[in-house]
């Protein structure tokens, strides 16, 4: 058996601003670029609303309830 070593890792970061309407774009991106790790911010997904993309595990921390409006700001 021959062993291969991967010397590079591809990490992608995306501030989605709402993922549900863009999930197909994310799936296409994953097929084209095959990133090792994908970091998604501002998905606006609910706690019981995981996403499924082949060959990726999904870890999700839902947004806490915000009283300052839709966006947290700085």
Automatic annotation (TrEMBL):
Transmembrane segments: none annotated. Keywords: Nucleotidyltransferase, RNA-directed DNA polymerase, Transferase. GO terms for biological process: DNA repair. It comes from the Eukaryota. One of its GO terms (molecular function) is endonuclease activity. Residues 13-73 form the Endonuclease/exonuclease/phosphatase domain. InterPro entries: AP_endonuclease_F1_BS, Endo/exonu/phosph_ase_sf, Endo/exonuclease/phosphatase. This is RNA-directed DNA polymerase from mobile element jockey. It comes from Parasteatoda tepidariorum (Common house spider).
């Amino acid at each position: 058996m021959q062993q291969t070593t991967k010397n590079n890792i591809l990490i992608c970061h995306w501030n989605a601003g709402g993922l549900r309407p863009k999930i197909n774009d994310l799936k296409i991106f994953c097929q084209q670029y095959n990133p090792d790790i994908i970091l998604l911010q501002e998905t606006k997904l609910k706690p019981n609303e995981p996403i499924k993309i082949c060959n990726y595990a999904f870890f999700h921390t839902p947004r806490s309830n915000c009283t300052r409006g839709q966006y947290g700001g700085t």
